[in-house]
Each structure stands twice: as C-alpha cells, then as structure tokens.
Design a protein that fits this description.
The complex is a heterotrimer of chains A (about 475), B (about 500) and C (about 325). Chain B has about 500 residues and is mainly α. Chain B contains 23 helices and 4 strands. Among the domains of chain B are: about 140 residues, no CATH class; about 80 residues, no CATH class. In chain B, strand 1 and strand 2 form a beta hairpin. Chain B is globular. In chain C, strand 10 and strand 11 form a beta hairpin. In chain C, helix 3 packs across helix 7. Classes of the chains: A alpha/beta (about 475), B mainly alpha (about 500), C alpha+beta (about 325). Chains in contact: A-B, A-C, B-C.
Chain lengths: ~475, ~500, ~325
C-alpha cells in the first residue's frame, strides 16, 4: 500500500514541531546559531516569476537543429502589429548553447542580456521543458504545485520541508528563511522554525508606536516584551509556552539585528548599493536586501543565519501587450529587470568572494501557449527554469519542447517518454538542488520530500533523477 | 468526567468564554461566574442561527464583510463553530473563483453550525463552492474524478486511520473509486450557485446508454472494513442523483472502527475537543462526550458541544500557574486574535475597506493575511496548521503590528478609547495593570512574574509610585503602551 | 516613510501628445494618481479619448480593424496642479477589473496596466511624477451587425489610490478615464475587420462572450472546453462532448464531418435547443442569448463544413 498523504505529513516532520525541542536548548535571548544544517556555508535564493512566464520567448530557437524548432516557432509567433516574434537578428546578441537533443542553436530573449553575460561566465544553467504531468493552467493550482513540490496538494513548501526535516535541524529560535515581500512565501512554509518577512531592512523592525518613540519609551517597552517572552522560553514544562517564548525572543532579536545589516552594507559597499539602485526596479531592490543579509552573515554578525531566501517578481501574465524584442514591451521590460538585477547581484557576490556559495533558482508556474493571440499569449504548459551561481555547471539541460506536435490546447506535450523531446519534471530540478546543494540523500528526498507519482505509470514522473548535472 | 452541576468560578468563566467566543469580556465573566457548567453551556448554545452571507464585488470586500460581522456578532460561539467548519470543510476562493458562491458556502456553515452533522454533510455534497473546489463539477462517468470522494472519506468523515490503539485503515482505494462514481453527474450554475444533476454524465449502477464502455457494475463499498461484513454495502437506492449521494452519507455514518465505535462520530468529536479544549484530548474524553450526547446516533452538534463544555477535561486546560506539561495550552487563531482584540476594546474596522486607522493603516484583510489566516483561502484542503503552526517570526510581528495599529488609532468615532474601558482615576501601577488584564480577559493566565514585568514597565522600574492618567504622558504613552504590551504578550496569544 | 533616495529617476513620457488627466475627484487629492494619454474630448478641457477606428491621430494601430488602441500610462505623486494638491506619497493603487479571478468584467489590458504599475512604480512610492510606460488599451467596436453597421465601443479605466498616512489621516483618489472607439467613416465591413468566417466567430463571439474569466478561458476551462483564440477550433471540430448525454446522442461539439448544425453541441447550446435531460445550460452562461444573426452565422459556418479559413457565403455582411 502506498503511503497516504497524511502519513507523508507526519513523516515529513511538518506536524511535529514540538518534538524537535529539548529542554535547555534555549541558551540566550539572542537568536541561537543554527544547528549544523546541510546547507553549510552556502545560501539558496528562489526567485518566482509570477503569472506564467512565456518560456518560448525566454529560451528561443534560432536554428532548426535536427528537427524544425525555428520553423515551428516562426509559424506560431507573429510579426507585424502586436506580433511577438523574436527574429534571428534580434536574438544575435544573446545566443547561448545548443539544444542537447536536436542541436538547435538557442538564444535568450534580448532583454535577458544580463543572464547572457552570466551564461558566458559559465554561471548559468538553463533547464528546458520543465513541468509536470496533467499540468494545471490555473495560476493558483499551478503555483501551489510548484511551491509544495507536490501536485497532490500539501500545505508545507518544498524548502519548508527541508527546513523542518532532520537535515534542516532548525529550532524555533532559528530564522533560517527570509521572504522579501509582504508575507511568508509558500515555498518556505512549515511549522518547525521561524521565517522572517522583510520588505526593506532599513524600515524593518519591531512595530513600536510613533508616540512611544517620540517619548523615549521604546527601551522600557522593549525590555518588558523581552522579559515576558524570555520567561516563557525558560519554561521547560509546557511545549506550547516554550515554543511561543522562544519564537517571541527570536523575533524581537531579529527585528533589531536585521536593520543593522542595512547600515553595515551601506557602510562597507556603498558603490554596490548604488548599482542596484540605478536599476530602479523591485527585483534589484529585493536582491540587494538579500545581498545585505548575506554580507552581514559573512561578516559574522551575531544572530544572523538566514540561508534560504525567496522573492517574487510579478507581471508575467501577458495575455496582452506582451511585446517581442521592442524595448517598450511588457515582456522585454520584465526580462531586462530580472537579467540586469541578477547580473548585479552576482557581480556583487563575486566581489564579496561568495559567487560560488550562492545558488539562485528561477521558476514560473507555467509557460504560455505557442500560438499568440492579438498582442499576447495565453497560459501554456512546460517552460524553462534557470539555475545561477559560480558553482553551477553552466550550460543547457533538458530538451526544447516539440512545437510541431501540440496537444488539444495547442500546447507542447509534457512527457517523460525517452526521446528528443523528453520533458524535465520540475521535481528533478528541486531534487538535484536538495541532493547536491543541500546535501540530502536521494533516498530521503524520494521518500519524504518529493514523492514520485505512483498512480499513473507511463508518462508520469515515476523514476526521479536527482542528478541532472547542473550542480557538481 | 461529565459534571454539568459543577459551578464556574471566575477562572473557569474566563476559560469557557475565551474558548467559545472572542475573548472574555469583563461583564460576561461576572455574569457567568456562579453558573453551573450546564447553565453556562445552555446559555452559550441558545443562539439563533443568524445567516451571514458575505457577498460583494471583490474578494477583499467579501472577506472584510465577514470579519466585520464577526466583530459585531451577538453569537460568538456560532462564529467560532463556523470557523471550525470552515477549516474542516476547507474551500478556497482562488479555485472557486466566485465571491457569490463562496458567500453561499459561508452562509451554509452558518445555517448548520450547531445543527445536525448528517444534514450538514448532505448539504455540503451539493454546495456550489465545494462542487468546484473538489472537482465534483468535473466528475463524470467518462472522466471520473476522485478528489471529492477521497476528501469526504479522509477529511470530512472517517479519517485515514481509526482512533483505536491499532490505528487500522478505515477505507481502501476501491471504496474511493466506488464513491466517486456515485458523485458523477453533478454541476452547478455559476451565477446562482444552484446545483443540478445531469443524468447523461452519471455513472449508473445499471447501464444507461447501452454502451458497454460505461458499465462498471454495481457500486459496493466497505467489503473489507467498516463492520459491514464481507458483503459490504451497496448503493441500491430509490433514485440516483440526490438520493444516491445522500445514501453514501448515511452509509458512512454507520461505519464502525476496529473498537466497534462509530468512526465518524469519534473523529468529529475528537476534532471539536482539539479545537475547544486542548490539542491532545484523551480517547476517554472523546468517548465520554459521545456517549453522553449520543452524537453517534443523533448527530446533533449542539448536544455534542454541551457534553464537551460540561466535561472535566475541558476545564483542565484552564488550570492556572504553575503549569504542568499536562496543562495543554492552545494558540489563538489569527482571526480570534484580531476579532477578540477589537471586541474587547470596543472598536470597529472602518468603512468598506475595514481599515484599522492607526500605524500602518491596513485593511483587516491585509492584517489577517500577514498573520497567516486569510479567510476563505486556507493553504490547502487540509485547512490551516493549528497551534504552533500559527507562530513564526513573520506572523508574530504581524500580530504585534496589529496590536500597535489598534492602540495607535487616535482619530474618529472608532478610535481606541481607554477611558471607556478602565477607571481613569486609578493611580497605583499594580491596580492599573490588573484593570487592563481584566479588560483583555487574561487575568487568570498571567503569572506573578509577568504581572511584575508589566508593573515595572508602567512604573519605569518603580521610579514612579503612582500615575495620573489624566496627564498626557501617563495616558498616551504608558497606558496605551501597556495595552499594546499585553496584546503582544505571550499569554494573550493563547486562547 | 522615507523619501526615495537620490536614485536615477526614470521619467517615461507616455505616447506622443500625451497629456495629464487627473481623472476626477477632489482637487486636493487629485494628484495622487493621474493618467497620461492623448486626451482629445471634450475639446475645451480634454479628459477622455474619442477616436474613429483607423484614425492615425488617435488610434495607435492606425488601421481600420474593428478596434482602437489607446496608449495609456499611470503616474503617481503628480506635480499636476501643485498649487492645490501635494501628494503625501502613495501606499496603494488598484485598477478595477484587473484580476483574472472569475470577474466577468475582467480585462487583460487592465491587468497589463496593473502589472506595469507593479513593475515600474513599486508602491509605496514617494517619488514625484513616478510613471509607468504606456500600455495599449484595446477598445473593440461593437458589431459588426447585419448591413455592415458597427456601434461605438467603450471602456472605462477606474483606479482607486490611497495616500500614505500623514498625521493620522489617509487621503484617497478615485479616477476614471473614458475610452471610446467610434465606427470608421462609411460602412463597417466585416471582410475588412476579419480574416474569414471562423476568425469572426472567434473574435466577435468567443473572445467577447465565452473565453472570459472563469468560463472558457485558460483559467476556467468550463466543461473542459477552451475557447481562446488559436485553440478553439481544435477543441471543437469533430470532438466528442464531455457531456455524456450529448455524446450519447451522437453529437459532436462541432459536427464538421456531417456539416450539421443540429448535431453540433455548440450550436444547440447557443440556440438553447436542449431537449434531453442532462444536456446542461444554454450559452452564453447567465447572459442574454446571442443575437439571431450571430447564431445564424455559426449555423452557416458549420453547414459549410466548419472551415478554418475563408468566408462562408452569407457570413460576410
């Protein structure tokens, strides 16, 4: 009998927050340093392109190869008014490698010049044709599938399950994950440890009333808050009380330490800060906040040990006004934002000597349909993912989808069947990261993190491959 | 044990009010003190079934309307039950895609909140939002969809494993398949939310259209489990459609676990004990509540709840300090935290956007989202993660922000007005602290050391022996700060 | 809230000839958000756009194609009328009908505009004259009706903007911009507007009545049927309906082989001709039935064998 979802829940440690704690582990009101996590001295950044990024105008065929990739592309993507066709000439500056199976020359969208530079450095892995069987074209359902790593539905995120697992080994007092934005990213969700949500480190902090601030009452209030929570953290008889106490003390500490990282970064790296600012885009600002935390971490600031980050860039639901290679188009604008921001981020990391320690994964909940409508595209199936970092074995992984054989909905066919167009299950990408970046064993991943499809053999994801090769 | 005649002291009164409502307001505490447990339960359960149907032109509007109705509800226990059922029958707006149909679902929960569980299940079978959320609307004989059948068994009724010491399986995959067949053919009108049955899409026991492809034979379930014997139970009912899916519910409610107890009754009673009493109720507690209320035959939720509210184990969690590992504490849900705070402070969210006009000026929908409980948007069909699942640095800061915003609301008719809550002639720091704890309904949860921390805050570590609350600084800084501190304190995060 | 640091200020002027349109409301809060567009109506103080399809002066695509394209951008913290209005900064800006969540009035162009705001303004913003680049809002003509007649098409963009709280108060600005596409001078000839009969069905019927949010679009796919342009023909032509009663009757979604409208579930649904139990609801769902000439157009097309291109006789008027 296969494992039920409930068993899966219990085994993955999601529901077992209390049991991870032992008496006396809470030693100081400051955030405790994380127990040895398998991420070691590395970091993981997850960037979500919200809305369904058009993969075909992200990684585009320039030649046919042994198939008819370019011809099929031209057949479906129009030129002229509202057309989004990327011509061969327009793609000349952003050529990358060849499709592994057909040899077709591939190029990135001209807006992705920043990623092209990273590719030339050998720091970009492009994983083509990522999806899952019986894909959903609903934003919500597709998002949930990718964020949890489980098409069956599950409330903890795939990164969250790692944090809560024995490999993660985190306590409620640890803050291993930070979401840049307004609310906890579903990828990080779990109930064993804390996640921080930071929009801007500079204005982050404990929410004191402005009147108390003016009256100099903050120190008294802070002291009282800390004493209340610390007294609960010291309780060793009642699990819920201790969890709350530890979480509260950790939260207060983080709310005070994290804003300092802004000052530290600005003092040490003012020129780099300006480079992000010059892009004047939210992705650049978000990555700068992550760079500040990583820098603080590198500088050994006590109480900072966040190693998992998530941020989102929205606007990819380009039903209309998508644009092709014209710089005013919505898609060009978004690509330029992401490409340029990631380039600055990695230049900054390289200057810190950390470019080989930070891995960035870029994903979107689905791609877009092959034929275009009047000025945009509708929801479609599989699309490319990016993995970035000096540690990455740069190159092209996975196959370009076959644009000549479409399904009922004019979408490329997701299939795990061997051949020129075999799709990449996104869980293989996650699994490769969990195994090769986070040090989990393949057996553990397949049994507790990313459970293969069992119900439907054939085209389904039944044989995981957690060694896609983009990480050593 | 069941003891309806035990008399409530103030501590027990606060406990039952917090658990069955939104916080323990002072006047209610005094009127419940001295009642017997039975009298208190009867009074709480006497509410009329007010139907809230939070429609609107957008999700935000609908969400805010529901929250506002909770803030002013005269029957907080009804709202607490509605929230329980919302978590139990989790349905999310993003998939349903219709404010109207979500409102219909919320109205259904209100109608049956304390009613008959069998009736609630049968109504849920045909609710438009549920038909959409768990894909019954896409379940037809040519393309069966097992989603609803599986959750009906796993989450709404039996559970995967029974509660016996052996923890045996309650159903098999074959049972899911057969039940999914019974639910084929249902759809609903998007605009009105009315459900309908289309014979052409239904998988009949007998052949319908002469095509052998569709003949899957008679529907028989529970041949190996459930205490029905090797013949199991079949769906030979008077008419397909409503009659057949009602029959499925009736059969499920006869299912016995390996102890010979009613499987669904045990599971629902246990969930309610977890919700109202504490996270890990004993099986004896669950069974005593069922046998006292006869829930396994009447399915009367009101009776079940009354038995729960007169049981010793319900009050055990009210025990005061010093705490033992057995004194199970339970974390307030974000919606309970927010609504209790507004009710205890006699405040209201303002306008159609249900704004809190202080601090960050956020709408209730944004506050709750940040705290981790957007209503009508549970993270999955499993509902929310309760207890410590509510607590993270991010959500705790969101609670602290809400508390700050509430006391920073200084303008307009809905502002924070401490003078309406406590006696402003008090001067002794300890007295003021006690008054604030009393207003916020947590006097019984605060230990002496914590009370001293609050006094130290108010008196600046004893630097001032008395405060004149008529003065600006004492009122606007210290007293307001004290309110915020208690709302942000760990004790207030518990229910 | 701090003022934005001295960063490179990208000021994107919208389309050429664009003017600032405050959008209505109190003059004290009107600068929180404004539109930039080539307003031309009324002539004295223009605050809306009225444009004949194909008029190169105002229709962005410059072609007689049944639709006008208007370049519109949104600005916050405008210096417009600075004597009366000083923006405290903007916390929140929302465009009506920009969410693809089942809203029957959802408009992907509004979504595109809202996406631009998310990408380029990054709220909360205190940057003066913080603008998006221009987004093309397509306003289709209504029709064509029999006799090659069109009626004007309209869209209204509505925004709600909240200021950053200042001294305990929060200001609010609601703005509207009316966009009207007028029929071109002379007749409104379907053969100029559409490539053929099926293109006309896709654009005049499916796109406006069926592939709408929550229905037969890629999010909703009601009845497993997707009617967005580009996919609808393969989803229809000689396909067995998922509705068991219809398939039991031997119908197809569109019976192209039989070239028979009566055995085409699509036509039956549009014509509310559903005699057996279990055939479901008439279409368009919950709206008034299609005009008779449009239903005839579908019937003629099916009876001509449902061709993917070209004009079927009697469908080009």
């Amino acid at each position: 009998m296969s494992m039920t979802r409930r068993q899966f829940f219990a085994r993955s440690g999601v529901a077992a927050a209390g049991t991870l704690l032992g008496p006396g582990l809470f030693a100081s009101p400051l955030v405790g340093q994380a127990l040895a996590s398998t991420i070691g001295d590395r970091w993981l950044v997850v960037l979500f392109l919200d809305g369904g990024n058009d993969g075909l105008n992200t990684v585009t065929p320039v030649s046919d190869g042994s198939h008819s990739h370019r011809a099929d592309y031209d057949l479906n993507r129009g030129t002229g008014s509202g057309g989004i066709n990327l011509s061969i000439a327009e793609l000349a500056g952003t050529l990358v490698g060849n499709d592994p199976s057909t040899g077709a020359q591939l190029a990135l969208h001209p807006g992705l010049a920043g990623l092209k530079a990273l590719y030339d450095q050998g720091w970009l892995g492009v994983v083509q044709g990522c999806g899952y069987p019986a894909y959903s074209l609903s934003h919500e359902l597709a998002r949930m599938t990718w964020q949890t790593g489980n098409p069956q539905g599950e409330s903890a995120g795939w990164v969250g399950r790692h944090l809560a697992s024995s490999s993660g080994g985190y306590l409620p007092t640890d803050v291993p994950g930070v979401t840049i934005g307004q609310r906890v990213a579903p990828e990080l969700r779990q109930s064993a440890t804390s996640v921080l949500v930071v929009d801007q480190l500079e204005s982050f902090g404990f929410p004191y009333d402005d009147l108390s601030a003016a009256a100099g009452d903050i120190a008294a209030k802070r002291l009282a808050f800390n004493r209340l929570y610390s007294s609960w953290a010291a309780t060793d008889l009642q699990d819920t009380k201790r969890f709350l106490g530890e979480s509260g003390a950790a939260t207060l500490a983080s709310s005070e330490i994290y804003p300092q990282l802004h000052d530290l970064y600005l003092a040490n790296r003012p020129g780099w800060s300006e480079q992000y600012a010059a892009l004047d885009r939210s992705t650049a600002r978000g990555l700068r906040e992550i760079a500040k935390i990583i820098h603080g971490n590198q500088q050994g600031v006590a109480g900072v040990d966040a190693r998992f980050f998530q941020l989102t860039n929205g606007g990819y639901d380009t039903h209309s006004n998508q644009g092709g290679a014209n710089v005013d188009g919505q898609h060009y604008d978004l690509h330029r934002e992401v490409g340029d921001s990631l380039k600055v981020f990695y230049d900054d990391l390289a200057d810190m000597g950390l470019a080989d320690k930070v891995l960035t994964l870029v994903w979107s909940e689905f791609s877009r349909r092959i034929p275009q409508n009047q000025s945009g595209t509708d929801h479609g199936s599989q699309g490319p993912m990016f993995v970035i970092g000096e540690a990455v074995n740069g190159g092209i992984y996975g196959n370009h989808p076959n644009l000549a054989a479409l399904d009922d909905q004019e979408n490329t066919v997701y299939s795990q069947a061997p051949g020129l167009f075999r799709s990449t299950d996104f869980r293989d990408v996650y699994g490769t990261i969990l195994k090769h970046w986070l040090g989990m064993s393949g057996e553990l991943i397949a049994s507790e993190m990313l459970v293969p499809d069992v119900a439907h053999p054939g085209g389904y994801w039944t044989v995981p491959n957690f060694d896609l090769g983009f990480l050593p | 044990m069941i003891d309806p005649d035990a008399v409530l002291d103030a501590r027990s009164a606060r406990h039952i009010l917090r658990r069955t409502g939104f916080g323990a307001p002072r006047n209610e505490v005094s009127s419940f003190t001295g009642l017997t447990r039975g009298q208190a339960a009867d009074r709480l359960l006497a509410f009329p079934n007010t139907i809230i149907r939070p429609g609107g032109s957008s999700f935000r509007e609908s969400h805010n309307r529901w929250v506002k109705s909770m803030v002013k509800s005269k029957a907080p226990l009804q709202q607490k039950l509605v929230l329980f059922w919302h978590d139990h029958f989790a349905v999310g707006y993003n998939k349903v895609g219709s404010v109207t149909n979500m409102a219909g679902y919320v109205a259904l929960l209100h109608r049956h909140a304390k009613g008959n569980f069998r009736t609630l299940l049968k109504a849920m079978n045909r609710n438009a939002a549920m038909l959409e959320f768990l894909d019954t609307a896409r379940n037809e004989k040519s393309q069966p969809n097992e989603n609803y059948a599986r959750e009906l068994l796993e989450l709404f009724t039996l559970g995967v494993h029974d509660l016996s010491a052996a923890g045996l399986e309650n159903y098999r995959q074959a049972d899911v398949v057969q039940i999914a067949r019974a639910f084929t053919g249902w759809g609903y009108e998007y605009n009105s939310g009315l459900s309908y049955f289309e014979e052409g899409r239904h998988d009949y026991v007998e052949e319908y259209d002469g095509s052998p492809n569709f003949d899957r034979g008679p529907k028989v379930i529970f041949e190996t489990v459930g205490g029905f014997g090797p013949a199991g139970r079949s769906f030979v009912v008077a008419g397909e459609g409503a009659g057949e899916i009602d029959a499925v519910i009736d059969i499920l409610l006869e299912h016995l676990d390996s102890d010979g107890h009613n499987t669904t009754a045990r599971r629902i009673a246990r969930r309610l004990c977890e919700y109202f009493a504490h996270p890990e109720p004993t099986l004896a507690f669950v069974d005593e509540v069922i046998s006292d209320s006869e829930f396994d035959s009447t399915w009367n939720c009101s009776a079940l709840l009354r038995s729960l509210l007169v049981h010793d184990d319900f009050y055990a969690t009210a025990a005061g300090p010093p705490y033992q590992s057995s004194s199970r504490k339970s974390v307030r849900w974000p919606i309970d935290y927010a609504v209790s705070t507004l009710r205890l402070l006699k405040m209201r969210p303002v306008g159609g956007s249900a704004q809190i006009r202080g601090g960050s000026y956020l709408s209730m929908v944004d506050h709750l989202d940040a705290m981790g409980q957007l209503l009508m948007e549970p993270p999955s069909v499993f509902g929310w993660d309760w207890e410590t699942g509510w607590i993270s640095s991010a959500t705790l800061l969101a609670r602290c922000t809400f508390a700050r915003d509430v006391v920073a609301s200084r303008y307009g008719s809905t502002r924070f007005r401490p003078e309406a809550l406590i006696d402003m002639t008090l001067t002794v720091p300890g007295d003021i602290v006690d008054a604030v704890l009393d207003v916020l309904g947590v006097s019984d949860q605060i230990e002496a050391g914590e009370r001293q921390v609050l006094i130290d805050y108010l008196s600046d570590d004893g630097a001032r022996e008395s405060l004149d609350l008529a003065k600006y600084e004492a009122r606007q800084i210290k007293l307001t700060g004290l309110f915020a501190l208690v709302l942000q304190s760990p004790a207030y995060q518990l229910q | 809230m701090r003022m934005a640091a001295a960063i490179l200020l990208v000021l994107l002027a919208g389309a050429s000839g664009a003017t600032t349109i405050p959008g209505g409301g109190s003059s004290r809060t009107d600068c929180l958000a404004t539109f930039q567009a080539a307003a031309n109506w009324p002539a004295s103080r223009p605050k809306a756009i009225r444009c004949a399809d194909g008029d190169p002066a105002c229709d962005g695509d410059g072609a007689v194609n049944g639709s006008c394209g208007f370049a519109v951008s949104v600005c916050v913290n405008s210096s417009y009328n600075a004597a009366r209005c000083i923006s405290p900064g903007v916390q929140f800006l929302e465009i009506d009908h920009a969410q693809d969540n089942g809203d029957p009035l959802f408009d992907p162009d509004f979504q595109a505009l809202e996406s631009r705001i998310g990408a380029q303004i990054d709220l909360p913003s205190s940057t003066p004259n913080d603008c998006t680049s221009a987004v093309t809002i397509h306003v289709p003509l209504d029709g064509p009706f029999p006799g090659s007649v069109c009626r004007q098409g309209k869209k209204q963009i509505r925004t709600t903007t909240l200021g950053l709280p200042l001294a305990g108060r929060q200001s609010r600005d609601t703005d509207k911009l009316d966009l009207t596409c007028l029929p071109p001078a002379g007749a409104c000839d379907p053969t100029l507007l559409f490539d053929g009969t099926f293109d006309r069905i896709e654009r005049q019927i499916f796109a406006r009545k069926c592939a709408t949010s929550g229905c037969h679009d890629s999010q909703g796919q009601a009845g497993g049927l997707l009617l967005e342009s580009g996919t609808s023909l393969s989803a229809l032509l000689d396909r067995v309906p998922t509705n068991g009663a219809a398939s039991a009757l031997g119908w197809r979604r569109v019976d192209g082989i039989g070239a028979n409208a009566e055995s085409s579930f699509l036509y039956r649904k549009l014509n509310d001709d559903l005699p057996a139990p279990g055939l479901g609801q008439a279409m368009p769902y919950g709206q008034r039935p299609l005009d008779g000439f449009l239903r005839d157009l579908v019937a003629l097309w099916i009876e001509a064998g449902a061709p993917a291109s070209g004009w079927v006789a009697g469908t080009d008027g």
